[in-house]
Design a protein that fits this description.
The chain is of the alpha/beta class. The chain contains 10 helices and 10 strands. The strands form 3 sheets. Strands 1, 2, 3, 6, 7 and 8 form a 6-stranded parallel sheet that branches. A two-stranded parallel sheet has the order 4-5. Strands 9-10 form a two-stranded antiparallel ribbon. About 15% of the residues have low confidence. The protein binds zinc ion (ZN).
Length: about 260
């Protein structure tokens, strides 16, 4: 465990220092293929072996479409409980993991994929990307891409900026790496101490294609899983994967281009 952990740390340091060397002058590997269309079609490749349910239960159960359940900031000490709750309620979700937490708990990242969930990039250390300047912002995203690829053998295609803070520079970094920016249409406010009932109430406002922001660590978020499952089933909605859409999805005064689709 310790040896493995130090190996990942070594890789991350290598990634960061290499990026510092080549950072802004050389094109990042793989960046050339990073068109939005490639991001969208590649999103399926982040899916693990689809052992979670949903596979055979489409059709009538999902007659009104799909929503995106997202859990940010992990993996954390309580990720196993969250995974157990999702499994018990036959829901699939997208985990936007931090690079530093993934290095600490690489086994949990693999568990997420193995359970049929999707793994996206949420930066290495959760900074305010629009305030730290370049090349720091690019390195935060790119090093996490390296870490997650090393752990999972898959290249993440989805990216969520910490605090939902983005601008033209951040979007340029995402495009260069080949990542689809994923914001949200509903904020559960679990990060602000919302109760399980309040989180479930927020989820009840999800429209087809919509995406809800939740987190990997609040206990109330895990408690809310069965409530969300019951509501989605009652409304003929299923938990889907997140993919590119040409539509402008409103986000404050900005827009983004991601929605939930059939896995
Ligand atoms: Zn976050």
């Amino acid at each position: 465990m310790t040896a493995r952990r130090s190996r990942f740390r070594h890789i991350a340091l290598l990634a960061v220092s290499t990026l510092a060397l080549f950072g802004f002058t050389a094109p990042a590997s793989g960046a050339a293929s990073g068109s939005r269309a490639a991001s969208a079609s590649g999103a399926a490749s982040t899916s693990g072996a689809a052992s979670a349910s949903g596979g055979g239960s489409h059709g009538k159960a999902c007659r009104n479409g799909y929503v995106g359940l997202t859990y940010d900031d992990g993996p954390s000490a309580t990720t196993p409980q969250l995974l157990a709750a999702l499994r018990a309620n036959r829901l699939r979700a997208t985990f936007f993991n931090q690079g530093n937490n993934s290095l600490d708990r690489p086994g949990l990242v693999r568990d997420e994929l193995r359970a049929g969930h999707w793994v996206g990039n949420h930066t290495f250390s959760h900074p305010h990307l629009t305030q730290i300047g370049e090349p720091a912002a690019f390195q935060e995203i790119a090093s996490t891409q390296w870490v997650l690829r090393d752990i999972t053998g898959r290249e993440p295609t989805l990216f969520r900026p910490p605090f939902g803070e983005t601008d033209d520079q951040v979007r340029a970094d995402e495009a260069r790496i080949g990542l689809l920016e994923v914001l949200w249409t509903v904020d559960s406010r679990d990060w602000a101490g919302a109760t399980a009932d309040e989180i479930a109430a927020a989820a009840r406002t999800l429209q087809p294609g919509g995406i809800i922001l939740m987190h990997d660590w609040p206990p109330a978020t895990i408690e809310a899983v069965p409530l969300i499952a019951r509501d989605l089933a009652a409304r003929g909605l299923c938990a889907g994967r997140i993919a590119y859409t040409a539509d402008d999805v409103p986000y404050g005064t900005q827009v983004f281009h991601a929605k939930a689709v059939r896995p």
